[in-house]
Amino acid sequence: MIARPRSSFFVLGLLATATACAGPSVAQPGSPAAQSGGSLPESGGAESAARESGSALAESVWAGIYSQQQAERGAAHYLETCSSCHSEDLRGNSNAPSLIGSSFMFLWGDRSLGDLFTSIQTLMPTNAPNSLPPQSYLDILAFIMESNGFPPGTSELVADPAFLGQIMITARSGL
User: Fold this and answer.
1) Closest residue by Cα to residue 113 from 171, 71, 163, 63
2) What is the pLDDT of residues 86-136, one digit of tens each?
3) What Å distances lie between residue 90 and 43, 81, 97, 131, 137, CA to CA?
4) CATH number of the domain at 52-175, please?
5) Pick from 149, 47, 38, 138: which is nearest to 102 by CA?
């Protein structure tokens, strides 16, 4: 038998825990599975206007993809529907993952905002998944972005699979 250093077992344990915490896989936004499930309603508003004006879609959470007002609404929704499991400070507990900091980035880094939105909408709250209006889920997502230090912008997040699927959750460049 080959002796392995204890750190290998620690890393394997972390990977197993992350896989278990990530929950079941969800359909990619814009895929036929996501479209048939109807998890992301189409939105015409601001996103359509941005496309018509020729503006490029945002590519990361550092591009100011939500508004401060949306994050404030999201904080109220979060306290009402999420904090009992993920705690008021978003740090989670032994049963619910942290939604901020390195723990959040470990689970969601280099994935799209669409992945996160779909996961939140289809799995949360655990006692009543997909029970909130899509706008409430978007507002909560904006609050999570704000809580992680991603900057606000002037427009709000919209439930557009193409838009959310292109926004990547990344660490600040240069770190």
Assistant:
1) 163
2) 999 999 999 999 999 999 999 999 999 999 999 999 999 999 999 999 999
3) 28, 12, 9, 20, 15
4) 1.10.760.10
5) 149
